[in-house]
Amino acid sequence: MERRVALKSLGGMLAAPAIHSNPTPAAQQPVLRIAHLTDIHLKDEFGAPAKFVQCLHHVQQQTPKVDLILNGGDIVFDMNKENLSSINEQWQLTRKLQQAECSVPVKYCLGNHDIWWYENSQGQATYGKQYALDQLHLGKPYYSFTQSGWKFIVLDSVHLDIDQTWYIGKLGEAQFSWLAAELAATPRTTPVLVLSHIPILTASLMIQDDIVNRWQMLGATCTPIRRK
């Protein structure tokens, strides 16, 4: 099975899961329903805007209704390999469609394609994560919030590697300390959902294209969260 087919099938099962205030088999009544949308890579080509609108409408037509959308990153097509005019157009298109076609609240985390790390752009104000944070009205790339008795933790898992030429999945010391404090301050009875772009552990490499049983986890495909 090709990776795209497998992920599409999996995504259909996880499109809008219901979650419960008490994550036990005895819990019967869901308190919140969420839709997880990720890697939309929106740009004004390939009929993508119309397909994104169709996706948003599909989410909003669900019964029971969807209360919250979690966007897992790679919101726009690609900041890193585009010029500033193309980057601005991608974000303007994203905001326009989101505001016009979606009434469900959305929480975002950054993906590697949402960050301008073009090597010739170092030193410019747009370089790094701040531009995308401004577009999303986020003060920080990682944050937490509570809703319907659940604690949601959104992580910033995408960072430049030590040689500054490629990204890697990690948290860094400051974010790790913040995460530890967040979890310590959360009652043990409170269910927690963690959202990140680069997963903490991924199974996608096992089904990547024609590669089967590939067990090597690369730095750009998983996020180790333990402190050294």
From TrEMBL:
Residues 32-215 form the Calcineurin-like phosphoesterase domain. Transmembrane segments: none annotated. Keywords: Plasmid. InterPro entries: Calcineurin-like_PHP (IPR004843), Metallo-depent_PP-like (IPR029052), STPP_CPPED1 (IPR051918). SUPFAM superfamilies: Metallo-dependent phosphatases. It comes from the Bacteria. Pfam families: Metallophos. This is Metallophosphoesterase. It comes from Hymenobacter volaticus. The lineage of its organism: Bacteria, Pseudomonadati, Bacteroidota, Cytophagia, Cytophagales.
